[in-house]
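job 3f2a | input accepted
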Amino acid sequence: MDTESLIRGLAGDAKQAGPRLSAVLAGALAVAVAVAGLAFFAMLGPRPDIALAAETPRFLFKFVVTLALALTAAGAFSALARPGAPVAWRLLAAAPLLVLAAVAVELLLVPQDQWEARWIGANAAQCLTFIPLIALGPLAILLWAMRRGAPTRPRAAGALAGLLAGGIAATFYAAHCADDSPLFVATWYTLAIVLLTAVGATAGARLLRW
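job 3f2a | predicted structure (210 res):
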C-alpha cells in the first residue's frame, strides 16, 4: 500500500470515528484551558488594577490578539488530527496581522522618545517565564489528545499544539501583565509563544509518530 492510499484509509477511519475524536479534542481543549487557569491563579493572578485597566483599549486589545491566536490555532490543531482534513493555514495570520496593525498605530500615536520604554516594558523577563510555565500543562494535554487522532505531519501537529498552548497561556497572562503596549506584546509575547511552538514541534516529532 502506498502512502496516498494509506492516508485515504486513515481519513476514512477518522471520518467514521469523527464524533468520538471531536469529543476527545474538545474535552482536551477544555481541560487545557482549566489547567492553564489553575496555573495562572496559583502563580500570578490578575493585576491589582484590572478594573481600571479594563477601561483602556490597549489592555483589551491584548485579549483580542491572544484569543484570535488561540481560536485559529485550535481550528488548525483539530484539522491536523484527521488525515486528509483541510487546514486553514491562512487564518493563523490573523493574530500577527492584528499585532502589526496595532504596532503601526502605536508608533503613530506615541512620541518616538517613548518607543523604547514601551517596547522593553517592566515585565519582559516575567513574560518569557510565566507564559511558558502556564502553557506546559496544556501542551502536554494537547499532545496526548493529538495522539488519539492520526496526524500525518507530527512535527506540524506538535508545533500547533505549542502554538495553541501559548495562545491559551498568553490570554491568562495578559490579565496580570502591566505592560499593555502593542510594542511589548509584539516582542515578548511573541518570543514566548515561538518558544512554545518550537518545544511543541520537537515533542511532536518524537511523540506523534506512528
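job 3f2a | Residues 3-207 form one domain.
job 3f2a | closed
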